[in-house]
Specification:
This protein has one helix and five strands, in the order H-E-E-E-E-E. With 67 residues, it is α+β, with helices and mostly antiparallel strands. A hairpin with a 5-residue loop joins strand 3 and strand 4. The chain is globular, with a radius of gyration of 14 Å. The protein starts with 10 loop residues before the first helix and ends with a strand. The model has no long low-confidence stretch (mean pLDDT 89).
Length: 67
């Protein structure tokens, strides 16, 4: 087994990559008073990135619904 694939991924790395996905592959945008939300959604994943305060919400569809 290759050790480079066993590195732990941090929550910050997940947020950075998913935020990039939301910006680049954006399927919708919702405006708000300060900034807005860039969103990416398909049948298995929903990412919402707050463009003013760097917060990201990630939801993944599993057998019993969205988590």
């Amino acid at each position: 087994m290759n050790d480079k694939y066993e590195e732990e991924i941090t929550p910050g790395q997940v947020a950075q990559v998913t935020g990039h996905v939301a910006r680049v592959l954006r399927t919708s945008h919702t405006s708000k008073k300060h900034g807005g939300f860039d969103q990416y959604k398909d049948d298995r994943i929903h990412i919402s990135l707050d463009t003013y305060v760097p917060n990201v919400d990630i939801r993944v569809k599993v057998e019993d619904g969205w988590r």
